[in-house]
Specification:
2 copies of one chain form a homodimer. By secondary structure, chain A is α/β, with parallel strands linked by helices. Helix content of chain A is 43%, strand content 17%. The first copy, chain A, is globular and about 45 Å long.
């Protein structure tokens, strides 16, 4: 259906333009912006909670939470004292740059060093929509099976960082971590991989160090 | 964007027509057809493997597997001796009725009592596309968190059966089963809920009994 393809191309082009403007604005303000993408239930909000607990004292953090329904994820971040805005997509399976623009323009988020944009839980649709982020973060939990990078290659190929979550459950599931690392290396040779458990705290310092280093590199490049 | 809405409405209308024809054809042949929908990694293929082991001796089973990439899921079913066809969607986040039609017309699947259509791993997009099934089966694993029905209400409201998978992991995760059952009852008062672990076999007999009973009810209604 060529008609569908045309409309989709125009929607994506409009999104690219809005994303480019967001990227310029985020860079001017010296903020690092991440776009977190995974299946529902891979642990995006839980990773952010652990991140706030570890970094909230020394960096200004903020969140934009994308969901089909419920304010639950923004509530979880606000409960930890960081500003968070929920975007309800009304059925759409991804956030787009104009929704993020509207939040930035209207929601009066206070100044932030790092903005976490948590996309709608979906490994497919969010992949094509640039939100002006510095890089995408893909999450995959060890309970989802070790075939996921090759089954959903687009997001794992484009993610600056892949976080393998829930590693505390490795003793209880069948999950070949080496195979997943090989798939990731093949799809995305320059992407970083971090192993975490929000429950035990394993890997959270590595993840936070990576965030602080990325922020420092960005600010140095702009100075 | 009214234009997008128009195109989407036409795509959905064409799908409805193809699905209605499929439903007539499936009913004429006396087959039960299920459309399995969940996040990536909730255990759709693993549930089907357990089902084939339990029922394959006395019913003719077949599978259609939807994925973005890889033939892996169809291979897993074929390895158990049941006919399975892989549909690669080329990036689309759901199967549609015309893809199923094409498989039925061209793939020369042998006669089946139950056809399992395993949709692309996604809790959102597949919800709107009728595939001519008797009912949708939604899966949610206990590792995904106990907020999922309310966060993805459309699929859980429409599923004839919700299968809660990986219950063997309940001792190792935070998951309020009663809360999930309440969400499901509120969204879908007539839907059935089955708890399973493909690893321990728990609940697989209940699931298989439900399938056999649904097949018997359908055949009786047609007799």
């Amino acid at each position: 259906m060529a008609e569908v393809v045309d409309v989709r191309a125009r929607v994506l082009a409009a999104n690219e333009e809005a994303a480019a403007q967001l990227r310029r604005d985020f860079s001017e303000s010296g903020a690092l912006v991440l776009n977190l993408i995974s299946s529902p239930g891979s642990g995006k909000t839980t990773l952010l909670e652990a991140t706030v607990r570890a970094l909230g004292g020394r960096l200004r953090l903020a969140g934009i939470e994308g969901d089909i329904a419920t304010e639950r994820d923004a509530d979880r971040l606000r409960a930890l004292g960081i500003p968070a805005v929920q975007i309800l997509t009304g059925g759409a399976c991804h956030l787009d740059a104009r929704q993020v623009r509207k939040v930035i323009d209207e929601a009066h988020l206070p100044g932030f060093d790092i903005l976490f944009i948590e996309n709608v839980g979906n490994l497919i649709c969010p992949t094509s929509y640039d939100l002006g982020e510095d890089f995408k973060v893909a999450l995959v939990s060890v309970t989802e099976g070790d075939d996921k990078p090759f089954k959903y290659p687009a997001i794992f190929a484009r993610a600056g960082v892949t976080v393998v979550t829930k590693v505390d459950l490795l003793p209880h599931v069948t999950f070949d971590l080496a195979a997943v690392k090989e798939q990731l290396a093949s799809l995305n040779p320059t992407g970083k991989v971090v192993l975490t458990s929000a429950r035990t705290g394993e890997g959270i310092p590595d993840w936070c160090a990576l965030l602080e280093q990325s922020l420092a590199v960005k600010r140095k490049a702009m100075a």
